[in-house]
Amino acid sequence: MDNLLRSLRFVMMLAFLLSSFPGMTANQLDLASYSIAYDAKRDPYVDIKAALKLASETNRKVLIEVGGDWCSWCHILDRFLKSHPSVALRLHKTFVVLKVNVSDANDNAKFMATLPPTRGYPHMYIANSGGKVLHSQNTAQFIVDKKYSEQQFMIFLDYWQSLSG
Predict the structure, then answer these.
(1) Which of 81, 133, 115, 122 is CA-nearest to residue 99?
(2) Does any domain span residue 6?
(3) CATH code at position 155
(4) Which of 84, 87, 100, 89 is nearest to 51 (CA)?
(5) Structural domain boundaries enclosing 52
(6) How many domains does the chain contain in total?
(7) Which is nearest to 86 in space by CA: 27, 160, 2, 25?
(8) Residue 92 lies in a domain
(9) Is the pLDDT of residue 44 over 50?
């Protein structure tokens, strides 16, 4: 009986915590700087090492998002995530996000040569916590009626969240 009561309390506490999660905003997440912005000065080799370590510690995969400040669709994606906090929260719950800059200031060619070719920007790669690239994702697949679709992102996140670790 005591075990049943403890289990019931745990489930109730977990339900309370999960119900408060949707009220959070993406800005309340404690994200690493490599998850927030494209930065030509950052070293993607240093960042991927940190992202892989965090992914391993938190049982997530790494989502490498390639683009830059010059990229209009990269800005549209950032605005979409800011205006859809449930998508942003699920994204960061499922993945450790690593933004890699590709621009005239720093094309990160050596790092990019380790990945499959991009098919436009922004472009996403999914890697496991060991660094193996599992998937290459064109973000155009998230667009419906010339806008990013919350439903398409959630389908993508549901799929990858179901493949934990």
Answers:
(1) 122
(2) no
(3) 3.40.30.10
(4) 100
(5) 24-162
(6) 1
(7) 25
(8) yes
(9) yes
